[in-house]
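Please, structure for the following, as tokens.
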Amino acid sequence: MTHPTTTGTATPVRAGDWAADPAACTLTFAVRNFALRTVTGQIPLTGAVIHVDPGGQPVSIRAELDARGIDTGNRRRDKDLRGRRFLATGRWPAITFEAHHIQPSETGWTISGTLTVKDARCPVRLQVTGPATPAGADHADLHATGRIDRHSAGVTAGPGFLIGHQISLSLAVRLLPPAGPPRE
């Protein structure tokens, strides 16, 4: 993991596995509904790990979301989303993300990876800002944004004029530093 500075250069941080604090993380999504309004919701993060190499560069990311915890503020819609037609959370309770390419940028990173929803694998590109480490804090905060096509993610129920194809993602992630010596 690197900390971008105002000049765009990066300074390395501690090597090892940085773990997300699920209680301090949010994943929010937004999708157009009936082409008139936007429906927003959240899915809880159950865990995430970013492995940082000895040079201070993130080299792998793995995260898991609890699809059963999807919350749009509408119980009926949430029940439908958890059901067989959409996420089928009885069979596939977890949504996973694995990064396969992490590239530094001026404000953080560009992360390319694969989101697995049900049995479908969907490409995802996230633009990450941060990490920000408040003075005296024992954590680092990241913010990421991205988009996915729900059809690519295996969520094909509902016609496009009722439910938009593009889903916008916004993540706020708090990372806790490695507890022990760096893993090689």
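Residues 2-11 have pLDDT under 50 and may be disordered. The domain at 18-176 is CATH 2.40.128.110 (Lipocalin).
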